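Trying the structure run again after the queue cleared.
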Amino acid sequence: MSFLVIDGAVKTFGGLRAVDGVSLSLEQGEIVGLLGPNGSGKTTLINLVSGALPASDGRITLDGTRLTGLRPDRIARAGVARTFQLVRVLPSLTLTENVMIPAVFGAHAHWGAAARRVAGEALDRVGLAGRETATAGELTYIDQKRLELARALAAEPSLLLLDEWLAGLNPSELLEGIALIRELAQSGITILMVEHIMEAVRALCPRAVVMNSGRLIADAPTEAALSDPAVIAAYLGEPADA
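Done. Tokens:
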């Protein structure tokens, strides 16, 4: 069985089917790009996997453990961590305090000195070593994004969900971000990343899945997916047979 299995996932909001029967799977250690135009349902699907939203139908499992129906804290304990499109940090707390929280509530439930050690390692991994006592509110936007990734890593996930984490980076920061994500993938973490920066998708993701209007319209090697007429039409807003 595949490591992450999404089977017929549905999320409805009134009459809107934001996720409409999506099925896909990831193998352990795989990094896959989740693509699609704005409003296609990508973030909603990430929310279903992480438990931020309950699924209306379907089944999601991670390494054989059913995630659908679990609270977000139980899903975090099962090994799922994520970042958000809009950075979510605790501005009045120090960087260490921010990152210790997911170390406590993540997959291995560290406390005290152990949680502080895990937090320090996560901060070092994203390039924030030496700034542990600064408050999150003092950080630039880019460094807040680094901090949010450190928070996700401190949960010690086996599945990492990245929701446009590379958005807003300048060219040199983008290269650093790509290198960091590649390092994470090489460490064995399974990564599903929502991304609009095709340079990053091509550099990082051997495979891409593409959504449009809540449905999966492509699941293929990245270059094949990006050249699929249905995918091109979804991004350009033209009929697939035009």
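The longest strand covers residues 16-26. Worth checking whether this holds up in the mutant runs.
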